């Protein structure tokens, strides 16, 4: 039985699926994207706004909750046809409020083509909830997609090696902030629009109790989705659909739930954590070995889950668990800052 409402569908995953589908035709498939160069008003809005489309008018994604559709959709079709364009769009107060925005506003939009290979890479990353970045010159004349855990894989270029290298480094710096962002940066003497998407973790808690409630509270503070399930079938289905951004915290010690860990190991996606004493962990380890799990698989299961913070209460234990997730996502050792020489805050 699920004790919370499952999170709504991730729009970026849906957009990623569309990009992959459209790019399946290779270079013959025309794909255009629309992004925000600059905005005025609208109140608090999310970074990383993106709409993509094809020459025949098929679109996926939204720019400011669809308030700019009258401008953005035709712009996407033009971009898919091979033309890069910068255009102004404005929304009145009634239209903005009807779309769910805080107030009226305007935006400078850029629509530009995205080569099929770059679109496929971006789509795959977004659909799988992996970090990704889309960079372009502000006129949309050249585009670059970065993928990989540290955005190390490049697809395309910005027309000049120095511009490409400096802009890519700027995008990787934005990734270290740990949040989706949109920035205009100067690289190699050129102005570049950079969108970086950092997936928001979604936590699946299997089992109930005070720690489960504390994990939900901690996830809420971080802006993560959280869901609790108690049934084996529900848990199995949820883990089968995991992306790299998803987190499993197994509280239930019933050996039947080993199947959930085996499911997670099978597809290799997401963070797998299991609660339990040393004795519980040892017993689980023996069962997993008997099921054919090797040392690499065992190492991928974080159990006992959490960092050694000396946690004593459910709330403190929840902090130790999410801290471990954050550290692993950032590639950090979770040591004290005073004892490290690396960059603070990313």
What does this protein structure show overall?
- There is one protein chain.
- This protein is of the alpha/beta class and 346 residues long.
- It folds into 2 domains: 11-197, no CATH class; 202-330, Rossmann fold, CATH 3.40.50.
- It is built from 11 helices and 15 strands.
- It has helices at residues 11-23, 69-80, 93-99, 116-127, 161-175, 210-222, 232-240, 258-267, 278-290, 295-299, 314-330, and strands spanning 32-41, 50-53, 59-62, 85-91, 105-113, 132-137, 143-147, 153-156, 181-187, 190-197, 202-206, 225-229, 246-250, 271-274, 301-302.
- A 5-stranded antiparallel beta sheet has the order 3-2-1-5-4, with helices on both faces. Strands 8-7-6-10-9 form a 5-stranded antiparallel beta sheet.
- The radius of gyration is 22 Å and the shape is elongated.
- 41% of the residues are buried.
């Amino acid at each position: 039985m699920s004790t919370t409402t499952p999170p709504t569908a991730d729009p970026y995953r849906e957009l990623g699926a569309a990009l992959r589908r459209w790019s399946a035709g290779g270079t013959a498939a025309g794909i255009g994207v629309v992004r925000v160069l600059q905005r005025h008003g609208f109140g608090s809005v999310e970074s990383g706004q993106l709409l993509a489309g094809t020459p025949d008018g098929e679109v996926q994604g939204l720019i400011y909750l669809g308030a700019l559709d009258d401008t953005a959709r035709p712009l996407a079709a033009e971009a898919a046809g091979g033309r890069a364009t910068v255009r102004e769009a404005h929304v009145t107060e009634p239209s903005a409020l009807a779309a769910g925005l805080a107030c009226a506003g305007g935006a400078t939009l850029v629509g530009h083509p995205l080569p099929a290979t770059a679109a496929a890479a971006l789509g795959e990353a977004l659909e799988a909830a992996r970090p990704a970045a889309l960079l372009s010159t502000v006129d949309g004349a050249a585009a670059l997609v970065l993928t990989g855990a540290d955005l190390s894989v490049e697809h395309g270029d910005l027309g000049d090696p120095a511009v490409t290298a400096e802009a890519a480094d700027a995008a990787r710096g934005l990734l270290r902030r740990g949040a989706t962002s949109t920035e205009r940066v100067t690289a190699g003497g050129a102005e570049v629009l950079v969108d970086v998407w950092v997936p928001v973790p979604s936590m699946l808690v299997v089992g109930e109790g005070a720690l489960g409630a504390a994990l939900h509270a901690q996830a809420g503070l971080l802006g993560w989705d959280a869901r609790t399930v108690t049934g084996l079938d529900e848990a199995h289905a949820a883990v089968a659909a995991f992306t790299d951004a998803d987190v499993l915290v197994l509280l239930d010690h019933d050996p039947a739930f080993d199947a959930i860990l085996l499911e997670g190991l099978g597809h290799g996606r997401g963070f797998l954590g299991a609660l339990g004493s040393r004795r519980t962990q040892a017993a689980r380890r023996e069962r997993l070995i008997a099921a054919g799990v090797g040392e690499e698989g065992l190492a991928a299961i974080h159990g006992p889950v959490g960092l050694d913070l000396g946690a004593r209460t459910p709330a403190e234990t929840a902090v130790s668990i999410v801290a471990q997730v954050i550290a692993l996502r950032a590639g950090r050792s979770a040591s004290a800052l005073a004892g490290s020489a690396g960059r603070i805050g990313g």
